[in-house]
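Supplementary notes for students who missed Thursday's class. We covered one full example, reproduced here. Read the sequence, then the structure, then the short commentary at the end.
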Amino acid sequence: EDAEEVCEGENRLDPESGLLNISVSYFFWNINSMKSWFRRVSTLRPPPKEFEAFQEGPLENSKNAWSGVRGETFRVRGKNYLSDRVKQQSAPNAFDLVEVEVFKSTNGKVENYAECPESAIARARKNGDERFMLMVVFQTVTIHLVVTWGVEPNVLDDDLVMKALWERYLNGNEAFRTKTFKVIPRIVDGPGSLKRLVGEKPGLLGKRLNFRYRQTDTHLLVICDTATSSFASRITQACMDQASRLTIDLGFLIEATEANELPERVFGAFRLSKPNLPNAKPLTWTENENEGANDKV
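Structure (token representation):
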């Protein structure tokens, strides 16, 4: 109707040519109307997507999920490794995998996540789990990967070698902890370039990354800051960029460097299956400046 009012009396059919003479005012009215429409469309924004929960899933064919992996699928230093350099199949995982978490921090790096009421430790305590917990946090500026294990005393009683090495790690100084923390990566599915970059060789993360620790009577928190090494940051960023196409197994152990610490044993392992990092759960929790006052240094 607006268009008809604008062109009324100004647009006429030429009787000789049979063409419609469109007035200049009508022409510019249409252009301005289209500009206005485009401006309205350009300001529209899709509603923000809710986060996609990162949950436990089956070992095979999962997406945006975590799964436990058997320790026996990894090869570790054998009983006589120091003399024959022979590796062997690991014994079953020494610790019980409680949960793997992925979240996006809205307040930068999170240091004492073990005290967060949303953490796996806090939820396990509410459910009556009183075991000693080991929590490992891999930090980037925003994305955090958190793995929590429960330490089963009866399992360690059946493996005196692992028990002694764990007690040494638990009660040792930070230098010993950092230099013996070992991870074995294994890309199950992903781009070939990423497989070549990550490899499958065991790595001592403390050689390139900064570690920090917080310990109480009920848990040990190990913080691995992936941003402290340019090389590690490149690998981390490459994995994050390809995360939706990546399925990777990670096995963790304490490196044995003395004969009485052999054979090695994986204490825990898990699989990450194609995590959706852009839609990771946001964490808005802010750490209390006074927490950790009773932490062991």
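Commentary. The first helix runs from residue 2 to 7. The radius of gyration is 29 Å. If anything here is unclear, bring it to office hours.
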